[in-house]
Amino acid sequence: MSELELHAAFGSVHDDDGARVVAFAASDDPEDGYVFVQADITSPAAPLYLEVSDEIFGAFDALEAVHFGDGLIALTIRPAMAMRFGAVSRVLVHWDDATDGGAEAAAALQAMMAR
Predict the structure, then answer these.
(1) % of the chain surpassing 90 pLDDT
(2) CB 35 within 8 A of CB 66
(3) In what order do the strands lie in the sheet with 88-94?
(4) CA 18/CA 82 separation, integer angstroms
(5) pTM for the full model?
(6) Residue 115 pLDDT
(7) I need a labelling partner for 1 at 20 to 30 A (CA). Which of 58, 80, 88, 108 fits?
(8) What is the DSSP code (8-state) at residue 109?
């Protein structure tokens, strides 16, 4: 299994059709890489959806754990789901003060994980 790293230039939080989406992107071009986690606002017990750089690398209930550090978010993918993500077992999202919307997105993801 491998790790994937994303150096985020942008972070965002938005609500769309009953879901809260927290996203990080390397640039404004999706081809450069992105990560998003989506939660059902109306049903907090519903599984989260994780997508990494393409909808083919996305699934519900894929996250085993999320750890927050200084400028780093480590998303660990459940072993049974790793092949769904191209044999990636962990996604590391790097962000800093220069990441537009990064602090807001990190705080929203932390709140989402505390539900």
Answers:
(1) 91
(2) no
(3) 2-7, 88-94, 72-77, 63-69
(4) 27
(5) 0.94
(6) 77
(7) 108
(8) H
Q: Among residues 33, 34, 39, 35, which one has the least CA distance to residue 16?
A: 39
Residue range 27-55, pLDDT digits in tens: 999 899 999 999 999 998 899 999 999 99
* Inter-residue contact 101 to 11 (CB < 8 Å): yes
Rounded CA separation 76/67 (Å): 8
- Cα–chain center distance at 114: 15
Tokens 């998003």 sit on residue: 36
Length of the chain: 115
Q: How many CB atoms lie within 10 A of CB 40?
A: 15
Cα distance between residue 70 and residue 101, in whole Å:
15
Exposure string (b/e) for 59-74, b if CB count within 10 Å is 16 or more? Answer: beebbeebeeeeeebe
Strands laid side by side in the 49-52 sheet = 10-16, 19-25, 34-40, 49-52, 58-60
- What phi and psi, each to the nearest 5 degrees, are found at residue 103? -65, -40
